[in-house]
Amino acid sequence: MFQSFDSSVSPGQGPARLAALRERLAAQGLAGFIVPRADAHQGEYVAPCDARLEWLTGFTGSAGFCIVLPDVAGVFVDGRYRTQVKAQVDMAHFTPINWPEVKPGDWLRQHLAGGVVGFDPWLHTADEIARIEAALAGGVTLKPVTNPVDAIWSDRPAPPAAPAFAHPEVLAGESAGDKRARLAAELRAKGEAAAVITLPDSLCWLLNIRGGDVPRNPVVQGFAILADDGQVTVFADPAKFGADLRAHLGAGVAIRPPGDFVPALRSLTGPVRVDRATAPLAVTLELEAAGIAVSPGADPCILPKARKNAAEIAATSEAHLRDGAAFCEFLSWLERSAPGSLTEIAVVEALEGFRRATNALHDISFDTICGAGPHGAIIHYRVTRETDRPLGEGELLLVDSGAQYKDGTTDITRTMAIGDPGEEARDCYTAVLRGLIAISRARWPRGCSGRDLDALARQFLWAKGLDYDHGTGHGVGAFLSVHEGPQRLSRLSDVVLEPGMILSNEPGYYREGAFGIRLENLILVREAPRLGDGRDQLCFATLTFAPFERRLIRIETLAPEERAWLNAYHAEVLEKLGPRISPATRAWLETACAAL
After folding, report:
1. Would you say the CATH fold of 165-301 matches that of 11-152?
2. Where is the Peptidase M24 C-terminal domain (predicted)?
């Protein structure tokens, strides 16, 4: 099993660790310290040695931070984690804060009359610190310091050391040399001498390599400097790069140990491009201290990486068909077996087993979210042996899962009925499904961003006075991170959607203490067939294939065009997956995909 069901946290240890941290802060003359869920590469998923927020508070979510002051410790989490955080932290010592509704700068102003609040400049971006500082007033200041958590974390795990490996050009669709030359030309056109690459997925995309340094993400942790002549210097553990991989990288790529990164920064000739939104502030501070001009600009890999080329699209399409077949085998098994004596853990084990049976599974793309009944309302719930519960008759079961195959990354969510869950569940499920269909059917003129489309997914919930506290969609990589920027379907995203971008389409609804509903397909931005007066428009192609739960659909509430889309989608599911599945599952799929 890739997924573990052991609990990695012990909230009971939080108070002692919090007290030790406060003692350390007092010794350093600090009134407070910010502990983020982040590493030096600003990844959503972190290696065990970088899980400082989890170690201190017990909170395991993929986003958030804690501000520790002498008399209060606020744990800031967004809407995905407001139920989870209350179950994981010691509420007598840590106070959950609704973020981003409550801004950290405003909160600091309210709770601290004056003093210095420390932060680790390797764990925060320049933009992040600037936003906090803009809200501060009075005598409160922020100061970059050596991380005091590391000083008291006596049994901190060792850094990851997984070997890196080549990602074939036939899957990448472009050689690493061509990528380096293309981005170097962009630097020269802007008069920049170099760019600092800090994101592991950018590094891996640029060099056509993959690794295993971060759980569920096939990336290599390291920094890189891309020069305007196309030469790249990678700063990572040299032991990760074997002779064959070095030959694959070629003479234009040098490997140096991590300790050489800061001296290399100080020796550069400017201007040097640094992404204020993704690079640690420490990079900018080191360059400025050496008198080197900093050119603020986006990581040059981010947009090219997001725009999947023809080879990447073909590869990930095949990965999604493979994964869809495995998921249908799982759904067929679940219908035959549930509820019986099944528990959430048994469901997760079975789903991973069907994916392993493809003989192509490299890893899962994140720990499977399998929430039965009230656990479905915990948006990013991860079952443990302590929280495992049986599937109950009349409940909903939410399963959000994905896989890493060498030809693509998948992410799919379906919500199933275990018996008869009642009319309220059907009403909510149908509203969520109609939102997914609205996004799937959307057409828009070039130049629109995710925030222009987000409301399409929410409209049917809004009509009922309901909503969900997460974005509608995130970007997805090509055998890289399952959460990839910069594109999103969110009211907060102004990134223009472009052909080749892959996003999730995942509206939901969550009734705390009762049930959760989420439906998710991955979708690909593509050029739309011209209509009307021939205007240039874009649309989505669906990559994910698996049936929706017929027992939860209020068919009479669907508009004719919605019913037509759903029938066409189910017909395509049967056509594409039928030849890939067992006879028993095909018989089940024929019923599941029958026209409404």
Report:
1. yes
2. 538-596
